[in-house]
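in:
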């Protein structure tokens, strides 16, 4: 089977990804049965991750995609989300660093993913810093608008965390006061 045919089947699988998973998987299996194809492995990783929630197999497919072609940019946009979901933050940072080192990757998108990583770890200041970088690097208005919404969402989370810590502190103080007054 020629590479050209595999590329056509991969494009068809990619086109049918969100609305016809059965057809998508069928075409991907055909492509993966032949030569190594980074795009097909990446898409199969996405199916296992996003649709089936089978993180072990998803990780294998993403890893294969990177081994076949470490410059296949799409893998750097989806693989870190899997690593964030399974709380493998060190590996996620490593994948993002490699992605940043490649000249052809969308740095604004990678900064957004890095912000999600920090947000998951409740490092809101770092997340906001990455989102601001993402907005600065964005090459279209839609991404800038999206990042503004993400910034306001994180600001809201940050305010909620501050309120809850204040409530906990006042409860501790009140409980100490009650305890002390009971001894008197």
């Amino acid at each position: 089977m020629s590479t050209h045919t595999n590329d056509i089947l991969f494009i068809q699988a990619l086109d049918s990804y969100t609305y016809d998973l059965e057809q998508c998987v069928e075409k991907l299996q055909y492509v993966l049965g032949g030569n190594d194809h980074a795009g097909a492995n990446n898409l199969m990783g996405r199916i296992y991750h996003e649709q089936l929630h089978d993180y072990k197999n998803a990780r294998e497919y993403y890893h294969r995609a990177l081994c076949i072609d470490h410059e296949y940019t799409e893998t750097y946009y989806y693989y870190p989300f899997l690593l964030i979901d399974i709380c493998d933050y060190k590996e996620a940072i490593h994948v993002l660093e490699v992605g940043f080192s490649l000249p052809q990757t969308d740095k604004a998108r990678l900064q957004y993913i890095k912000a999600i990583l920090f947000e998951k770890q409740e490092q809101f200041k770092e997340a906001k810093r990455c989102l601001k970088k993402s907005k600065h690097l964005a090459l279209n208005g839609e991404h800038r608008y999206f990042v503004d919404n993400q910034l306001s969402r994180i600001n809201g989370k940050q305010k909620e965390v501050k309120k809850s810590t204040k409530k906990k502190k006042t409860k501790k103080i009140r409980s100490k006061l009650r305890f002390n007054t009971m001894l008197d």
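note: The mean pLDDT is 91.
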